[in-house]
Specification:
Layout (H helix, E strand, L loop, with lengths): L5 H4 L10 H4 L13 H8 L9 H5 L6 H9 L3 H9 L5 H7 L3 H4 L12 H14 L15 E5 L3 H12 L3 E5 L8 H4 L8 H14 L2 E3 L10 H7 L2 E4 L5 E2 L12 E3 H13 L13 E5 L3 H13 L3 E6 L26 H9 L10 E3 L1 E8 L5 E8 L12 E4 L2 E4 L3 E3 L6 H5 L22 E3 L2 H4 L4 H20 L18
Parallel strand pairs: 1-2, 1-4, 2-3, 4-15, 6-13, 7-8, 7-13, 8-9
Antiparallel strand pairs: 5-14, 10-11, 11-12
Helix pairs in contact: 3-5, 3-9, 5-6, 5-9, 6-9, 7-9, 10-19, 14-15, 15-16
Length: about 500
């Protein structure tokens, strides 16, 4: 550790965000450009180089956090980049998109604000790109074996890069017209500008990975054909089967799934559309669902010029501090967090019907009502207690011209033909069944990421991609030197 007293003398300081009124007028990332590097060395000094670094266990990638903190504090960016990329293919993604369970597991977080691990991570990644420290790493020789990866989200890309670097010939199949999965069309530009994604894709192309876009395996090309043409197949299609809200009035127009709405806004940013056909401009918007996808809808609707936006969360508002009985350190605590989108809603007063940050906690949707044309005009809700029972006398209605359902995902799409054509077995909750080696019931076919694990964090997705790559490499060659950070049955730390 560069400064043994850093955690005592230096307060936590995070990457500052641009003023809300400024950033909602564009789609650029919310942070102040260039404001991270001047503060990051001192923040890295706050790392205590713990004898047992629980941040390692809190992150499924096993990131070597104390090591690269120390290297950053000494301004050794090359070594820091090497240590960071040793466990994570895409730290420029995770440093922007991950909710940082590593910080919840930071030993300093027992009684002080945690080390800004996530900020240090993204600073290393961006500095590595700026200094040319992330060149393509093509294999020295080819193995003669071929692998198809179906899906180009973080799991598919991580698996493809690892297998390509191991010498296999890898082709990634993506149903959309661009590579990236939900990182491309689900994550808004203000959370991660797509230039970060593009440079990783170009790095992978230079290493030898092949990409096949606008190709749905099971429709555009038969799944059995893919299985026949390749020595191994990795299914990494994600959990795209969205959950529904079965209440009266759901059939009204103007009620959309979040993943019908968000991709259109991303296509506007890509230049495909001049204006989203689902734009929230001038509309009263209600978002049903209190998670990250709901917050993405919130920030998007604000930028589109919504008249008002309210977000419903069925859970009670959490406290500001960790509850040591229900969420003891080092587990990831359920506490009140203010995302960039909620900060914008608060500062701009965008949700007059809700609390300061646009959220209505402990609120459950009863029904929708519409006008004579069949378009939604109101959402009727009721407050609920801790057991989700309606509280008498709390029913009310919110004006709603656009309702966005952000209720999460249950598993992979069962209607695209892939699962049926291959005859893949599913577990009762709807995800793809697999064994301890990530193998499905179909020989030569593997499943990884949200399609098999269920909806999870980006760090778990990348860890799954790295682990399934090691399993495939071992099957194709008899052994593997690729790291396998997790097993298919590993889960986040919990009580």
């Amino acid at each position: 550790m560069a400064d043994p007293k850093g955690f005592m003398t230096t307060p936590r300081q995070e990457w500052p965000r641009r003023p809300a009124g400024e950033r909602v007028r564009d789609w650029d990332e919310v942070y102040v450009p260039g404001a991270l590097l001047p503060i990051i060395s001192e923040q890295a000094d706050r790392c205590m180089d713990c004898g047992v670094p629980f941040c390692h266990d809190a992150c499924p990638l096993g990131n070597l956090i104390p090591e690269w903190n120390d290297l950053v504090s000494r301004a050794d960016w090359r070594a820091a980049s090497d240590r960071l990329h040793a466990t994570n293919n895409f730290p420029d993604f995770t440093g922007r998109l991950c909710p940082a369970p590593c910080e919840a597991g930071c030993v300093l977080a027992i009684n002080q604000p945690a080390v800004t691990i996530k900020n240090v991570e993204v600073a290393i990644a961006d500095r590595a790109w700026a200094d040319g420290l992330t060149p393509p790493r093509p294999p020295d020789r080819l193995s003669g074996r071929t692998v198809a990866v179906i899906g180009s989200g973080p799991t598919g890309l991580a698996a493809a890069q690892q297998l390509t670097r191991a010498g296999h010939t890898v082709a990634v199949y993506e149903k959309d017209d661009r590579i990236g999965g939900l990182m491309r069309y689900g994550i808004p530009e203000f959370k991660m500008e797509k230039r970060h994604l593009e440079r990783r894709i170009e790095q992978m192309r230079a290493e030898g990975t092949k990409f096949r876009t606008s190709t749905t395996v099971g429709r555009d090309v038969m799944a059995d054909d893919i299985r026949t043409r390749y020595d191994a197949v990795v299914i990494a299609t994600g959990a795209t089967e969205w959950r529904e809200l079965h209440v009266p009035g759901r059939e009204l127009t103007g009620i959309q799934q979040a993943m019908e709405y968000l991709p259109l806004a991303n296509r506007v940013c890509e230049g495909d559309l001049a204006r989203s056909p689902m734009s929230a401009a001038g509309k009263h918007v209600v978002i049903v669902g209190g998670g990250d996808t709901g917050a993405d809808c919130l920030g998007t609707a604000i930028r589109e010029g919504a008249a008002s936006v309210t977000q419903l969360d069925i859970y009670a508002q959490p406290g500001a501090e960790r509850d040591e009985d229900t969420d003891p350190w080092p587990t990831y605590p359920k506490i009140y967090r203010l995302s960039a989108a909620h900060e914008e809603a608060r500062d701009l007063g965008i949700a007059p019907a809700a609390d300061a940050d646009a959220r209505l906690f402990a609120a459950s949707t009863l029904r929708f009502t519409g006008d004579e044309t069949g378009h939604v005009r109101a959402l009727h809700l009721v407050e609920v207690d801790e057991r989700r029972r309606p509280v008498e006398g709390t029913a009310r209605a919110l004006p709603a011209d656009l309702v966005l359902l952000a209720l999460g995902f249950s598993g992979p799409d069962r209607d695209d033909g892939l699962i049926g054509q291959l005859g893949l077995a599913l577990v009762p909750r709807g995800t793809i069944a697999r064994d301890a080696d990530f193998a499905t019931n179909v020989p030569g076919v593997y499943a990884a990421g949200d399609a098999a694990r269920g909806q999870s964090l980006i760090v778990w997705a990348i860890a799954e991609g790295r682990a399934v790559a090691a399993a495939v490499d071992r099957r194709l060659t008899g052994s593997s030197r690729l790291p396998a950070p997790i097993g298919p049955y590993d889960r986040p730390m919990s009580v």
